[in-house]
Specification:
Layout lengths: L28 E9 L4 E11 L6 E7 L14 E7 L1 E3 L9 E10 L4 E11 L8 E5 L2 E4 L5 E2 L1 E3 L2 E3 L15 E8 L5 E3 L3 E2 L5 E6 L4 E4 L1 E8 L2 E8 L4 H22 L6 E6 L5 E3 L2 E4 L3 H9 L7 E2 L7 H14 L20 H4 L7 H18 L1 H14 L3 E2 L2 H11 L5 H6 L4
Parallel strand pairs: 1-13, 19-20, 20-22, 23-24
Antiparallel strand pairs: 1-2, 2-7, 3-6, 3-10, 4-7, 5-6, 8-9, 9-17, 11-12, 13-16, 14-17, 15-16, 18-19, 21-22
Helix pairs in contact: 1-2, 2-3, 3-5, 5-6, 6-7
Protein backbone atom coordinates (compact mmCIF):
# COMPACT_ATOMS: atom_id res chain seq x y z
CA UNK A 1 0.00 0.00 0.00
CA UNK A 2 1.00 3.68 0.12
CA UNK A 3 4.50 4.48 1.40
CA UNK A 4 4.41 6.63 4.53
CA UNK A 5 6.44 9.82 4.87
CA UNK A 6 5.67 10.85 8.45
CA UNK A 7 7.97 10.71 11.47
CA UNK A 8 6.83 7.89 13.69
CA UNK A 9 6.15 8.08 17.41
CA UNK A 10 7.94 5.62 19.65
CA UNK A 11 6.22 2.58 21.03
CA UNK A 12 7.19 0.08 23.66
CA UNK A 13 9.04 -2.96 22.44
CA UNK A 14 7.09 -6.19 22.86
CA UNK A 15 7.72 -9.82 22.04
CA UNK A 16 8.40 -10.76 18.45
CA UNK A 17 5.56 -11.68 16.13
CA UNK A 18 4.75 -15.12 14.86
CA UNK A 19 5.12 -15.48 11.13
CA UNK A 20 2.46 -16.71 8.72
CA UNK A 21 3.06 -19.93 6.87
CA UNK A 22 2.40 -20.97 3.34
CA UNK A 23 -1.25 -21.50 2.39
CA UNK A 24 -2.57 -24.96 1.69
CA UNK A 25 -2.52 -25.86 -2.00
CA UNK A 26 -6.17 -25.23 -2.84
CA UNK A 27 -5.17 -24.23 -6.41
CA UNK A 28 -8.16 -21.95 -7.01
CA UNK A 29 -9.45 -20.99 -10.46
CA UNK A 30 -12.11 -18.37 -11.14
CA UNK A 31 -14.55 -17.63 -13.93
CA UNK A 32 -16.31 -14.30 -13.56
CA UNK A 33 -18.85 -12.54 -15.78
CA UNK A 34 -20.02 -9.11 -14.64
CA UNK A 35 -22.20 -6.50 -16.30
CA UNK A 36 -21.60 -2.87 -15.39
CA UNK A 37 -24.17 -0.14 -14.82
CA UNK A 38 -24.53 3.20 -13.07
CA UNK A 39 -21.47 4.61 -14.81
CA UNK A 40 -19.30 1.69 -13.71
CA UNK A 41 -20.21 1.96 -10.03
CA UNK A 42 -22.32 -1.22 -10.02
CA UNK A 43 -21.42 -4.70 -11.29
CA UNK A 44 -23.67 -7.74 -11.30
CA UNK A 45 -23.27 -11.23 -12.70
CA UNK A 46 -22.06 -14.74 -11.93
CA UNK A 47 -18.86 -16.20 -10.54
CA UNK A 48 -17.62 -19.76 -10.27
CA UNK A 49 -14.79 -20.89 -8.03
CA UNK A 50 -13.00 -24.20 -8.49
CA UNK A 51 -10.61 -25.54 -5.87
CA UNK A 52 -8.77 -28.66 -4.74
CA UNK A 53 -9.10 -30.24 -1.32
CA UNK A 54 -5.43 -30.45 -0.25
CA UNK A 55 -6.12 -32.14 3.08
CA UNK A 56 -6.35 -35.76 4.26
CA UNK A 57 -10.05 -35.50 5.22
CA UNK A 58 -13.17 -34.61 3.22
CA UNK A 59 -13.78 -30.87 2.91
CA UNK A 60 -17.27 -29.91 4.10
CA UNK A 61 -17.24 -26.16 3.47
CA UNK A 62 -15.43 -23.25 1.88
CA UNK A 63 -15.22 -19.61 2.88
CA UNK A 64 -15.44 -16.76 0.39
CA UNK A 65 -14.05 -13.34 1.27
CA UNK A 66 -16.14 -10.23 0.57
CA UNK A 67 -13.49 -7.64 1.38
CA UNK A 68 -15.44 -4.75 -0.10
CA UNK A 69 -17.84 -4.89 2.83
CA UNK A 70 -15.08 -3.94 5.24
CA UNK A 71 -14.51 -0.58 3.57
CA UNK A 72 -17.79 0.76 4.98
CA UNK A 73 -17.38 -1.07 8.29
CA UNK A 74 -20.12 -3.56 7.42
CA UNK A 75 -22.76 -0.84 6.95
CA UNK A 76 -26.00 -1.79 5.23
CA UNK A 77 -26.81 -2.15 2.45
CA UNK A 78 -23.76 -4.33 1.91
CA UNK A 79 -21.39 -3.25 -0.87
CA UNK A 80 -20.72 -6.85 -1.97
CA UNK A 81 -23.42 -9.51 -1.88
CA UNK A 82 -23.42 -13.08 -3.16
CA UNK A 83 -26.57 -15.18 -3.59
CA UNK A 84 -28.17 -18.04 -5.50
CA UNK A 85 -25.38 -20.55 -4.86
CA UNK A 86 -24.74 -23.73 -6.78
CA UNK A 87 -22.86 -26.56 -5.11
CA UNK A 88 -23.61 -25.50 -1.56
CA UNK A 89 -25.68 -23.46 0.90
CA UNK A 90 -24.76 -19.93 1.96
CA UNK A 91 -24.21 -19.06 5.58
CA UNK A 92 -24.73 -15.69 7.29
CA UNK A 93 -21.93 -13.19 6.51
CA UNK A 94 -22.79 -11.06 9.54
CA UNK A 95 -21.37 -13.77 11.77
CA UNK A 96 -17.93 -13.20 10.23
CA UNK A 97 -17.94 -9.42 10.41
CA UNK A 98 -19.48 -9.29 6.91
CA UNK A 99 -16.23 -9.95 5.00
CA UNK A 100 -16.51 -13.74 4.84
CA UNK A 101 -19.32 -16.10 3.86
CA UNK A 102 -19.39 -19.83 4.50
CA UNK A 103 -20.64 -22.12 1.77
CA UNK A 104 -21.56 -25.51 3.14
CA UNK A 105 -21.00 -27.97 0.31
CA UNK A 106 -23.87 -30.20 -0.77
CA UNK A 107 -21.41 -33.09 -0.81
CA UNK A 108 -18.03 -33.10 0.98
CA UNK A 109 -15.06 -32.82 -1.35
CA UNK A 110 -12.82 -35.87 -1.13
CA UNK A 111 -9.08 -35.48 -0.42
CA UNK A 112 -7.26 -34.52 -3.60
CA UNK A 113 -10.52 -34.00 -5.50
CA UNK A 114 -11.45 -30.84 -7.31
CA UNK A 115 -14.87 -29.19 -7.01
CA UNK A 116 -16.74 -26.03 -7.97
CA UNK A 117 -19.15 -23.64 -6.32
CA UNK A 118 -20.88 -20.78 -8.09
CA UNK A 119 -22.96 -17.77 -7.05
CA UNK A 120 -24.46 -14.51 -8.22
CA UNK A 121 -22.47 -11.37 -7.45
CA UNK A 122 -23.70 -7.82 -6.82
CA UNK A 123 -21.05 -5.14 -6.26
CA UNK A 124 -21.98 -1.55 -5.42
CA UNK A 125 -18.97 0.78 -5.32
CA UNK A 126 -19.28 3.43 -2.58
CA UNK A 127 -19.75 6.71 -4.48
CA UNK A 128 -18.96 9.04 -1.60
CA UNK A 129 -15.85 7.28 -0.44
CA UNK A 130 -12.50 8.16 -2.00
CA UNK A 131 -10.54 4.99 -1.47
CA UNK A 132 -9.19 1.85 -3.11
CA UNK A 133 -12.76 0.49 -3.14
CA UNK A 134 -14.69 3.62 -3.88
CA UNK A 135 -14.50 6.79 -5.92
CA UNK A 136 -11.12 7.28 -7.55
CA UNK A 137 -12.07 10.60 -9.14
CA UNK A 138 -15.18 12.20 -10.55
CA UNK A 139 -16.84 9.50 -12.66
CA UNK A 140 -14.20 6.83 -11.85
CA UNK A 141 -14.86 3.73 -9.73
CA UNK A 142 -12.00 1.78 -8.12
CA UNK A 143 -12.68 -1.90 -7.45
CA UNK A 144 -9.81 -3.07 -5.27
CA UNK A 145 -10.38 -6.65 -4.09
CA UNK A 146 -14.11 -6.24 -4.71
CA UNK A 147 -14.54 -9.52 -6.57
CA UNK A 148 -15.24 -12.35 -4.08
CA UNK A 149 -12.30 -14.70 -3.60
CA UNK A 150 -11.50 -17.90 -1.76
CA UNK A 151 -10.30 -17.47 1.81
CA UNK A 152 -6.77 -18.36 2.87
CA UNK A 153 -6.55 -21.93 4.15
CA UNK A 154 -3.59 -22.85 6.31
CA UNK A 155 -2.77 -26.04 8.20
CA UNK A 156 -6.20 -27.44 7.40
CA UNK A 157 -8.20 -24.47 8.71
CA UNK A 158 -9.74 -21.40 7.07
CA UNK A 159 -8.03 -18.13 7.98
CA UNK A 160 -10.63 -15.39 8.45
CA UNK A 161 -8.52 -12.33 9.19
CA UNK A 162 -10.33 -9.08 9.94
CA UNK A 163 -10.45 -6.11 7.59
CA UNK A 164 -7.60 -3.62 8.10
CA UNK A 165 -8.22 -0.15 6.73
CA UNK A 166 -4.63 1.07 6.74
CA UNK A 167 -3.05 -1.92 5.05
CA UNK A 168 -3.96 -5.35 3.74
CA UNK A 169 -5.31 -8.32 5.65
CA UNK A 170 -6.01 -10.39 2.55
CA UNK A 171 -3.72 -13.26 1.66
CA UNK A 172 -4.24 -15.32 -1.48
CA UNK A 173 -2.46 -18.19 -3.18
CA UNK A 174 -1.75 -17.69 -6.87
CA UNK A 175 -4.81 -18.54 -8.97
CA UNK A 176 -6.02 -18.50 -12.56
CA UNK A 177 -8.66 -15.91 -13.44
CA UNK A 178 -10.95 -15.63 -16.46
CA UNK A 179 -12.95 -12.42 -16.14
CA UNK A 180 -15.42 -10.93 -18.61
CA UNK A 181 -16.52 -7.36 -17.87
CA UNK A 182 -19.28 -5.78 -19.94
CA UNK A 183 -19.04 -2.02 -19.60
CA UNK A 184 -21.99 0.35 -19.94
CA UNK A 185 -21.96 3.05 -22.61
CA UNK A 186 -19.25 5.71 -22.26
CA UNK A 187 -17.44 3.66 -19.58
CA UNK A 188 -13.91 2.40 -20.11
CA UNK A 189 -12.32 -0.36 -18.07
CA UNK A 190 -8.75 -0.57 -16.80
CA UNK A 191 -8.33 -4.28 -16.12
CA UNK A 192 -5.44 -6.74 -16.31
CA UNK A 193 -5.18 -9.88 -18.39
CA UNK A 194 -4.76 -11.16 -21.92
CA UNK A 195 -7.84 -10.26 -23.95
CA UNK A 196 -9.67 -13.24 -25.46
CA UNK A 197 -11.88 -13.34 -28.60
CA UNK A 198 -15.03 -13.38 -26.45
CA UNK A 199 -13.96 -10.28 -24.55
CA UNK A 200 -12.80 -12.09 -21.42
CA UNK A 201 -9.45 -11.32 -19.85
CA UNK A 202 -7.24 -14.13 -18.61
CA UNK A 203 -4.70 -13.79 -15.80
CA UNK A 204 -2.60 -16.79 -14.85
CA UNK A 205 -1.05 -17.10 -11.39
CA UNK A 206 -2.75 -13.98 -10.07
CA UNK A 207 -3.32 -13.21 -6.38
CA UNK A 208 -6.47 -11.18 -6.95
CA UNK A 209 -8.45 -9.50 -9.73
CA UNK A 210 -9.06 -5.78 -9.37
CA UNK A 211 -9.97 -3.09 -11.87
CA UNK A 212 -11.15 0.49 -12.41
CA UNK A 213 -14.05 1.73 -14.51
CA UNK A 214 -15.54 5.02 -15.59
CA UNK A 215 -14.69 8.09 -17.60
CA UNK A 216 -11.06 7.27 -18.29
CA UNK A 217 -8.49 8.06 -20.96
CA UNK A 218 -5.37 6.02 -21.62
CA UNK A 219 -1.91 5.98 -23.13
CA UNK A 220 0.00 2.79 -23.96
CA UNK A 221 3.55 1.62 -24.59
CA UNK A 222 5.49 -1.63 -24.68
CA UNK A 223 8.22 -1.82 -22.04
CA UNK A 224 10.60 -4.76 -22.34
CA UNK A 225 7.88 -6.91 -23.90
CA UNK A 226 5.24 -5.89 -21.32
CA UNK A 227 2.12 -4.15 -22.67
CA UNK A 228 1.75 -1.16 -20.34
CA UNK A 229 -1.31 1.07 -20.28
CA UNK A 230 -1.58 4.16 -18.10
CA UNK A 231 -5.09 5.35 -17.23
CA UNK A 232 -6.31 8.68 -15.86
CA UNK A 233 -9.65 10.38 -15.32
CA UNK A 234 -10.85 12.33 -18.33
CA UNK A 235 -10.65 15.46 -16.20
CA UNK A 236 -6.93 14.95 -15.46
CA UNK A 237 -4.29 16.76 -17.54
CA UNK A 238 -2.91 14.68 -20.39
CA UNK A 239 0.57 15.33 -19.08
CA UNK A 240 -0.29 13.04 -16.15
CA UNK A 241 -0.47 10.07 -18.52
CA UNK A 242 2.79 11.00 -20.21
CA UNK A 243 4.56 11.52 -16.91
CA UNK A 244 3.48 8.27 -15.27
CA UNK A 245 4.02 6.22 -18.40
CA UNK A 246 7.51 7.71 -18.55
CA UNK A 247 8.18 6.60 -14.98
CA UNK A 248 7.15 3.04 -15.87
CA UNK A 249 9.31 3.08 -19.00
CA UNK A 250 12.34 4.12 -16.96
CA UNK A 251 11.76 2.13 -13.78
CA UNK A 252 10.16 -1.17 -14.77
CA UNK A 253 13.38 -2.41 -16.46
CA UNK A 254 15.32 -1.49 -13.34
CA UNK A 255 12.92 -3.48 -11.17
CA UNK A 256 13.40 -6.46 -13.46
CA UNK A 257 17.17 -6.12 -13.02
CA UNK A 258 16.73 -6.18 -9.25
CA UNK A 259 14.06 -8.85 -8.84
CA UNK A 260 13.81 -10.84 -12.06
CA UNK A 261 11.24 -10.83 -14.87
CA UNK A 262 7.87 -9.16 -14.42
CA UNK A 263 5.15 -11.73 -13.83
CA UNK A 264 2.49 -11.10 -16.50
CA UNK A 265 2.16 -10.01 -20.15
CA UNK A 266 0.47 -6.71 -19.32
CA UNK A 267 0.44 -3.97 -16.69
CA UNK A 268 -2.30 -1.43 -15.99
CA UNK A 269 -1.43 1.78 -14.11
CA UNK A 270 -4.42 3.75 -12.83
CA UNK A 271 -3.58 7.33 -11.81
CA UNK A 272 -5.59 8.48 -8.82
CA UNK A 273 -5.17 10.61 -5.73
CA UNK A 274 -7.62 8.44 -3.81
CA UNK A 275 -5.21 5.64 -2.91
CA UNK A 276 -1.90 3.93 -3.58
CA UNK A 277 -2.55 0.22 -3.97
CA UNK A 278 -1.12 -2.82 -5.72
CA UNK A 279 -2.91 -5.70 -7.41
CA UNK A 280 -2.06 -8.47 -9.82
CA UNK A 281 -1.09 -6.73 -13.06
CA UNK A 282 -2.60 -3.41 -11.95
CA UNK A 283 -1.59 -0.60 -9.62
CA UNK A 284 -3.52 2.43 -8.41
CA UNK A 285 -1.19 5.33 -7.70
CA UNK A 286 -0.72 9.09 -7.53
CA UNK A 287 1.74 10.68 -9.97
CA UNK A 288 4.68 11.01 -7.58
CA UNK A 289 7.55 8.91 -8.88
CA UNK A 290 8.59 7.25 -5.62
CA UNK A 291 5.01 6.12 -4.99
CA UNK A 292 4.74 4.72 -8.52
CA UNK A 293 7.99 2.81 -7.95
CA UNK A 294 6.76 1.52 -4.59
CA UNK A 295 3.53 0.18 -6.08
CA UNK A 296 5.33 -1.32 -9.07
CA UNK A 297 7.72 -3.11 -6.71
CA UNK A 298 4.70 -4.80 -5.15
CA UNK A 299 4.19 -6.60 -8.47
CA UNK A 300 7.11 -8.71 -7.23
CA UNK A 301 6.74 -8.48 -3.45
CA UNK A 302 3.32 -9.95 -2.89
CA UNK A 303 2.42 -10.16 -6.60
CA UNK A 304 4.77 -12.89 -7.76
CA UNK A 305 6.38 -13.54 -4.37
CA UNK A 306 3.42 -14.08 -2.06
CA UNK A 307 3.45 -13.61 1.69
CA UNK A 308 1.09 -13.48 4.65
CA UNK A 309 0.11 -9.82 4.54
CA UNK A 310 -1.98 -10.14 7.69
CA UNK A 311 0.62 -11.79 9.92
CA UNK A 312 3.82 -10.46 8.33
CA UNK A 313 3.18 -7.34 6.20
CA UNK A 314 6.85 -6.38 6.33
CA UNK A 315 7.63 -9.19 3.91
CA UNK A 316 6.28 -7.08 1.07
CA UNK A 317 6.15 -3.48 2.40
CA UNK A 318 9.79 -3.48 3.46
CA UNK A 319 10.89 -4.73 0.05
CA UNK A 320 8.77 -2.20 -1.84
CA UNK A 321 10.21 0.59 0.33
CA UNK A 322 13.74 -0.71 -0.20
CA UNK A 323 13.03 -0.70 -3.95
CA UNK A 324 12.33 3.03 -3.86
CA UNK A 325 15.91 3.86 -2.93
CA UNK A 326 17.42 1.07 -5.04
CA UNK A 327 15.53 1.95 -8.22
CA UNK A 328 15.81 5.71 -7.78
CA UNK A 329 19.52 5.27 -6.94
CA UNK A 330 19.28 7.03 -3.61
CA UNK A 331 21.90 6.43 -0.93
CA UNK A 332 20.73 4.10 1.85
CA UNK A 333 19.18 6.30 4.51
CA UNK A 334 19.45 3.81 7.37
CA UNK A 335 22.63 3.64 9.44
CA UNK A 336 21.39 1.70 12.45
CA UNK A 337 18.18 0.13 13.74
CA UNK A 338 15.70 2.55 15.26
CA UNK A 339 14.12 2.12 18.68
CA UNK A 340 11.08 0.47 17.07
CA UNK A 341 13.07 -2.10 15.11
CA UNK A 342 11.71 -5.12 16.99
CA UNK A 343 8.18 -4.10 16.02
CA UNK A 344 8.97 -4.50 12.32
CA UNK A 345 7.67 -8.05 12.10
CA UNK A 346 4.35 -7.48 13.84
CA UNK A 347 1.10 -8.37 12.09
CA UNK A 348 -1.84 -6.11 11.37
CA UNK A 349 -3.71 -7.16 14.51
CA UNK A 350 -0.99 -5.46 16.55
CA UNK A 351 -1.24 -2.29 14.46
CA UNK A 352 -5.03 -1.88 14.59
CA UNK A 353 -4.80 0.35 17.64
CA UNK A 354 -1.47 1.86 16.65
CA UNK A 355 -2.15 2.86 13.05
CA UNK A 356 -0.22 6.12 13.23
CA UNK A 357 2.90 4.01 13.83
CA UNK A 358 2.27 1.46 11.10
CA UNK A 359 5.08 3.03 9.05
CA UNK A 360 7.52 1.03 11.20
CA UNK A 361 6.70 -1.94 8.95
CA UNK A 362 7.86 0.05 5.92
CA UNK A 363 10.89 1.96 7.12
CA UNK A 364 12.35 -0.25 9.78
CA UNK A 365 11.80 -3.17 7.40
CA UNK A 366 13.70 -1.33 4.67
CA UNK A 367 16.35 -0.46 7.24
CA UNK A 368 16.86 -4.15 7.94
CA UNK A 369 17.40 -4.81 4.24
CA UNK A 370 19.83 -1.88 4.01
CA UNK A 371 21.85 -3.25 6.92
CA UNK A 372 21.90 -6.79 5.57
CA UNK A 373 23.03 -5.38 2.21
CA UNK A 374 25.84 -3.46 3.90
CA UNK A 375 26.92 -6.53 5.86
CA UNK A 376 26.91 -8.84 2.83
CA UNK A 377 28.07 -6.29 0.26
CA UNK A 378 25.71 -4.84 -2.34
CA UNK A 379 26.54 -7.11 -5.31
CA UNK A 380 26.15 -10.32 -3.30
CA UNK A 381 23.01 -9.15 -1.48
CA UNK A 382 21.25 -8.06 -4.64
CA UNK A 383 22.21 -11.20 -6.53
CA UNK A 384 20.93 -13.33 -3.64
CA UNK A 385 17.70 -11.32 -3.39
CA UNK A 386 17.09 -11.63 -7.12
CA UNK A 387 17.65 -15.38 -7.03
CA UNK A 388 15.28 -15.64 -4.07
CA UNK A 389 12.56 -13.70 -5.91
CA UNK A 390 12.91 -15.92 -8.97
CA UNK A 391 12.93 -19.12 -6.92
CA UNK A 392 9.76 -18.07 -5.08
CA UNK A 393 8.03 -16.85 -8.24
CA UNK A 394 4.25 -17.38 -7.93
CA UNK A 395 4.96 -19.08 -4.62
CA UNK A 396 5.28 -17.93 -1.02
CA UNK A 397 7.86 -16.20 1.14
CA UNK A 398 8.29 -16.53 4.90
CA UNK A 399 10.70 -14.84 7.26
CA UNK A 400 12.36 -18.17 8.02
CA UNK A 401 12.98 -18.94 4.36
CA UNK A 402 14.35 -15.47 3.66
CA UNK A 403 16.65 -15.62 6.67
CA UNK A 404 17.97 -19.06 5.73
CA UNK A 405 18.77 -17.95 2.18
CA UNK A 406 20.60 -14.81 3.30
CA UNK A 407 22.47 -16.64 6.07
CA UNK A 408 23.66 -19.27 3.59
CA UNK A 409 24.92 -16.65 1.12
CA UNK A 410 26.51 -14.16 3.53
CA UNK A 411 30.24 -14.36 4.28
CA UNK A 412 29.54 -12.65 7.62
CA UNK A 413 27.07 -13.53 10.34
CA UNK A 414 23.67 -11.85 10.27
CA UNK A 415 22.23 -13.21 13.50
CA UNK A 416 22.50 -9.96 15.44
CA UNK A 417 20.51 -8.12 12.77
CA UNK A 418 17.75 -10.72 12.69
CA UNK A 419 17.49 -10.60 16.47
CA UNK A 420 17.44 -6.80 16.59
CA UNK A 421 14.52 -6.69 14.16
CA UNK A 422 12.69 -9.65 15.68
CA UNK A 423 13.07 -11.94 12.66
CA UNK A 424 12.76 -15.56 13.70
Amino acid sequence: MRPLALALALVAVGPAAAFGGEPDATLPAYQVELHGSEGGFRWTGRESLTLTNPGPAPLADVFVRLWGNGARECARPRSVVISNPAGGVLGDPTRRNCTAVRIKLHAPLAPGARGTVAFDVDIRVPRRRRDRFGKGAEGVALLSNAIPALAHREAGAWRLDRWFRFGEAWTYPAADWRVRLEAPAAVRIAAPGVLQPDGARVVQQGRDYSFAAGRLRSRAATVGGVAVTAWAPETAPRRSLRAVLGVVQRRLPRLEELFGPYGWPDLQVVITNATAMEHTGLVMTPRREYIVVHELAHEWWYGTVGDDQAAAPWLDEAFATYAEEAVLEQPPWCRRPGPDARLTTRGVDFWRKRVIRYGVVYYEGACLLDLVERRMGRPLFRATLRDYAITQRHGWSTAGELRAVMDAASPRGLGDLWRRFGVQ
